[in-house]
Amino acid sequence: MVTDTKVALTRAGQHWCRRKSVLYGYWWVAAKDAAVAAAQERLKYRKSVEY
Fold first, then answer.
1. pLDDT higher than 70, residue 1
2. Which superkingdom (predicted)?
3. Dihedral sign, CA of 24, 29, 32, 33?
4. Which residue among 15, 27, 41, 42 is the one 20 to 30 A from 33 at the CA level?
């Protein structure tokens, strides 16, 4: 009975960790995309000011 609970907890923990890493991965990609977009906007703005 105790081992069943331990196994269930371990599985839940692994699942949660995997989900967390997936969410973190998405967050990282989104942050990178936002940074790239912001840099592009800044470049556009700088060019429009120069010309």
1. no
2. Eukaryota
3. negative
4. 15
pLDDT of residue 37: 95
pLDDT digits (tens, 9 = 90+) for 23-46: 888 888 999 999 999 999 999 988
Give one word for 37, left, alpha or beta, with left for phi > 0 and alpha for psi -120 to 50.
alpha
Query: How many Cβ atoms sit within 10 Å of the Cβ of residue 23?
Result: 10
CA distance 44 to 40: 6
